[in-house]
Amino acid sequence: METKHRIVIADDHAILREGITALLAGEGDLEVVEQVDNGKDAVRAVATHRPELVVMDLSMPKTNGTEAIRHIKKRYPDTKIIALTVHKADEYINATLSAGAEGYLLKDDSLSELLTAIRRVLSGKRYLSPSVADKVVNGYLGQQVVSHATTSWETLTHREREVIKLVAEGYKNREVAEYLSISPKTVEKHRANLMKKLGLRSAADLTAYAIEKGLVTR
After folding, report:
1. What is the pTM of this model?
2. What 3 state SS string does the chain have?
3. Mean model confidence pLDDT for the chain
């Protein structure tokens, strides 16, 4: 009997998860072992099933895809990851690839493109959506001629990025502390530090910044 490649789907849209699962069900050597709707559960699913591949959305509630990719690659470096997203901006592409993803695909690409990406990545290669491949190549060829100065966002620690996302989603400090398994005082410290780094003065400013960065939707 042919061994199947185990795959986890992480996306906060049920229709998309079900669609990908249905597509892969028609492939004899591919099997979706779990669907999840947030980054934290994606990390848990990898720990539980040890899949060969994760198809990961970047914009999800609580823990986003980029942070989940970083956690997974740190703990399970052999797990392959394809980011599936609407984001075409350089900062998303660079952050995702730097976090360790082997593939980057856009949600307006075709299902056949997704299947091609899955096959390529499972075979040990990398795959970029044709829509973003030129941007990545041009960036390297130009040696990042476009200003590579450190942005205020890049000065944030991973924990501060987790905190800003949760606060912008409307969670109280106590709830953020519970979710991240840290103390409320630590949350307050991270919140104060990140607002200082970003030059923000209020919760409204913080939320507006998170929306601008695509961390949360309106």
Report:
1. 0.79
2. CCCCEEEEEECCCHHHHHHHHHHHHCCCCEEEEEEECCHHHHHHHHHHHCCCEEEECCCCCCCCHHHHHHHHHHHCCCCEEEEEECCCCHHHHHHHHHHCCCEEEECCCCHHHHHHHHHHHHCCCCEECHHHHHHHHHHHHCCCCCCCCCCCHHHCCHHHHHHHHHHHCCCCHHHHHHHHCCCHHHHHHHHHHHHHHHCCCCHHHHHHHHHHCCCCCC
3. 88
